[in-house]
Amino acid sequence: MLGVSRRWRREGQAIGLVPTMGALHAGHLSLVERSCRENHRVVVSIFVNPIQFGPGEDFERYPRDAERDAEVLAKAGVDFIYRPTVAVMYPTGSSTRIHVAGVSEPLEGRARPGHFDGVATVVAKLFTAVEPDRAYFGQKDAQQVTVVKRMAQDLGFPVEIRVSATVREPDGLALSSRNAYLAPEERKAAVCLSSALRLASGAYARGERSPERLRRTLWERLEVEPLAQVEYAELVDPETFSAHGSLAVLAVRIGRTRLIDNHDLAMDFPG
Ligand code: AMP
Questions:
Q1: Could you report the per-residue pLDDT of 51-68, keeping only the tens digit for each?
Q2: Where are the alpha helices (DSSP H) in the chain?
Q3: What domains does the chain contain, in order, with CATH numbers?
């Protein structure tokens, strides 16, 4: 991989990287298309990263469809699909992990111990393998964006992190490879996440600023959904992910499927 990207660099071509775990959907494609507009060359990595999954999570059953992904990316005009194996990424004996203290610790970090160490480590390895000028991430995984930005800055990677808006289904559900797990009844129930964000955003637009009342708005909408089990629904500062800010962040289980979503209440909810 590095030989290819270094050749491109010598030729003066800007390289964009879109890290993914495959099972590509329109959310991924929005990042790919943006990267194609903003760079001469685009690399999409597809790697279901075992070390960002905890014990009992869905690593084994995570959706994989290499053939379809390759077709979709060829159509989008991607120059290179980087698909390392687990043995290449983590050869026997490799033991280094990157821990981004602070921002990686609350919310998703608390709910999924070790998750962000796995994310920070694999993204650093992808940056080393590809040496991109720009890397593209989705706002859907808001805390991941903050963790990756911190890691890139702290380790001195000369890469610009660009963040794109969350792509949603017409009813508001954020696209996610994990939506494929949802049974039809669960798919209907899953709208409660975006619906809660929309309600809180509406309240904010009408002048509500009490963190308790905005948080209550989120919880009340989620709790009326019998198939939903709320893991967290909080308002946080988007820079630090600590208490009290305008970013509403949710993690909700619908049956066995864990979904996350977020929205900055200071902005209108789309749709
Ligand atoms: P994943 O394959 O789930 O690791 O996601 C790869 C990248 O796509 C990450 O930067 C995600 O934040 C981004 N992404 C996932 N879902 C969406 C979405 N619905 N809209 C925009 N970006 C997304």
A1: 999 999 999 999 999 999
A2: 2-10, 26-38, 66-76, 86-89, 108-111, 115-130, 142-155, 184-189, 191-205, 211-223
A3: 2-164 (3.40.50.620), 177-264 (3.30.1300.10)
